[in-house]
Amino acid sequence: MDKMKKHILITGGAGFIGSHLLHLFVNKYPEYLIVNADKLTYAGNLENLKEIENAPNYRFEKADITSNDEISELFKKYDFDGVIHLAAESHVDRSISNPMEFINTNIVGTVNLLNVARAHWNGNYEGKRFYHVSTDEVYGSLGDTGYFTESTAYDPRSPYSASKASSDHLVRAYFHTYGLPVVLSNCSNNYGPYQFPEKLLPLFIHNIRNRKPLPVYGKGENIRDWLYVGDHCEAIDTIFHKGTAGETYNIGGNNEWKNIDLIRLLCKVMDNKLGRKEGESEELITFVKDRAGHDMRYAIDASKVKKELGWEPKTDFPTGLEKTVDWYLTNKEWLESVTSGQYQKYYEDQYIKR
Ligand code: NAD
Ligand code: DAU
């Protein structure tokens, strides 16, 4: 195989953020060979990658990040210079009902990748990079004021966030102990096309369209900081190429919404798009039992990545939300397919439990 300028491994590329990142990298870097390693769990879908599947600089490999044999084989085959690691179990509610899967994938899988990269690079770290894509949930829950900065102490509260916190610590340990050239980012809630309809926005868009109840946890007073997925991918691109080894960068949208306010806005946008009378979708709002250990507020201080690397979000929220709603309404078949057939069990597991 001819060595292209860089060989990059992206894990979890068939998921929500990974598929957007692949679109960006495959189109922007024709001189890179980009390999997507994904186990194709319920959250991974090759339909998300249709537009780039035949690109000459793209390869798909079905692989499990927890398998030393499978990942070592890929490193031998492609001689990677860089890893951008996104593969994970990513849904908080599933981590509450099945924590072990999160421990295996998010912790064991990450350590396995670190070990294989370290063994393959064998101390020759020139031009090498291991990027761990992580979450703001590692910092715990905020009160009414304040922001998460890179020096906020970790205080994870769900099995999901504890597993991501653990993997962050291990990634940093490989930097300090073995000199592995790592970089990390911790990002707030992403929204956009190709998100599995277990997460708030795609689930509620799907339910509004089908006139099904909208299950709001607790009183809907929890606050999240929303970022358009394309902006997150641009931040990953910037940090991968320009970030300093050993550093962490917080990424956020500077866009806090109380859940209930966001849901009411979504209902308004949907009424308008679907030609329904104003207020019709709001009638579907149903307050249900709160999520166990539900973090109250997340808010990111993203000044470090802006100041040091020049990244800031570009997509204003009304535009991003409208673009997102339009995508799900236009791609009805995608939503139908991921809530039926092989995906139905996963969709219903989440939905019926409430
Ligand atoms: P997702 O659930 O949509 O996708 C995860 C992908 O990982 C899927 O394609 C799945 O098949 C793959 N995968 C799971 N287990 C695997 C394994 N053992 N081996 C190989 N592949 C496996 O997740 P997402 O929302 O795109 O999140 C991607 C990453 O970004 C995660 O690490 C998540 O913690 C992080 N993150 C997500 C958000 C968000 O709002 N979605 C915000 C901050 C950080
Ligand atoms: O902050 C980054 C994190 O954002 C990522 O690390 C996670 O992978 C991602 O799933 C997301 O976690 P959240 O738990 O914040 O996202 P979710 O879409 O599950 O929920 C958003 C908010 O909406 C949260 O306060 C819970 C609430 N909610 C969610 C669902 C699915 C409801 O009220 N009802 C619902 O049905």
Secondary structure blueprint with pairings:
Layout lengths: L5 E6 L4 H13 L3 E7 L19 E5 L5 H11 L3 E4 L6 H6 L1 H23 L7 E7 L23 H20 L3 E6 L1 E3 L8 H10 L4 E4 L5 E6 H14 L5 E4 L4 E3 H16 L10 E4 L14 H7 L7 H14 L1 H7 L5 H9 L2
Parallel strand pairs: 1-2, 1-4, 2-3, 4-5, 5-6, 6-10, 7-9, 8-12
Antiparallel strand pairs: 9-11
Helix pairs in contact: 1-7, 2-4, 4-5, 6-8, 8-10
Explain what this protein looks like in three dimensions:
By secondary structure, this protein is of the alpha/beta class. It has a domain at 6-191 and 226-251: NAD(P)-binding Rossmann-like Domain (Rossmann fold, 3-Layer(aba) Sandwich). Helices cover 42% and strands 17% of the residues. It contains 12 helices and 12 strands. The chain has helices spanning 16-28, 68-78, 92-97, 99-121, 159-178, 200-209, 229-242, 259-274, 303-309, 317-330, 332-338, 344-352, and strands at residues 6-11, 32-38, 58-62, 82-85, 129-135, 182-187, 189-191, 214-217, 223-228, 248-251, 256-258, 285-288. The strands form 3 sheets. A 7-stranded parallel sheet has the order 3-2-1-4-5-6-10, sandwiched between helices. Strands 7-9-11 form a 3-stranded mixed sheet. Helix 1 links the parallel strand 1 and strand 2 (32-38). The longest helix has 23 residues, at 99-121. The N and C termini lie far apart (51 Å). 44% of the residues are buried. 2'deoxy-thymidine-5'-diphospho-alpha-D-glucose binds at residues 90-92, 135-137, 188-189, 199-200, 203, 215-217, 222, 224, 259, 291, 298.
